[in-house]
């Protein structure tokens, strides 16, 4: 029995209640690519100070959108506050 036919048989058994989830092996984990962006110590300090001002004015931190883009010579980092409807440019041009 080939792999496709075996999967069809398992689906048939499961649909008819003859196989429980505990009896079926879990699906294999998806293997995708991951990309991580980081902020340096000075950027984090500026961000936390800005967030503390937003909390002092509005009473909460709200939601933030982080945008990381490449300029070809360095990374541009911008954080947008939905609550304050403003953005903070954390781009470290000196590190380019």
Annotate the secondary structure layout.
Blueprint: H1 3-15, H2 41-58, E1 64-70, E2 75-81, E3 86-89
| Shape label | elongated
Count the strands? Answer: 3
Provide a count of the helices.
Answer: 2
Mean pLDDT: 83
Report strand %. Answer: 15-25%
Report the major sheet.
3 strands, antiparallel
Number of domains: 1
Features:
three-stranded antiparallel β-sheet, 19% strand, 2 helices, alpha+beta, 96 residues
Summarize the structure in words.
The protein contains two helices and three strands, in the order ααβββ. With 96 residues, it is α+β, with helices and mostly antiparallel strands. It has one domain. The protein has a three-stranded antiparallel β-sheet, with no helix packed on it. The longest helix is centred in the middle third of the chain and has 18 residues, at 41-58. The N and C termini lie far apart (59 Å).
In short:
The protein is α+β, with helices and mostly antiparallel strands and 96 residues long. Helix content is 32%, strand content 19%. The model has no long low-confidence stretch (mean pLDDT 83).
């Amino acid at each position: 029995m080939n792999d496709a036919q075996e999967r069809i048989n398992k689906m048939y058994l499961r649909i008819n209640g003859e196989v429980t989830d505990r009896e079926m092996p879990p699906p294999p984990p998806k293997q995708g690519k991951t990309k991580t962006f980081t902020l340096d110590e000075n950027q984090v300090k500026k961000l936390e100070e800005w967030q503390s001002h937003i909390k002092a004015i509005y009473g909460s931190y709200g939601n933030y959108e982080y945008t990381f883009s490449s300029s070809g010579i360095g990374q541009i980092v911008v954080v947008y506050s939905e609550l304050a409807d403003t953005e903070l440019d954390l781009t470290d041009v000196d590190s380019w």
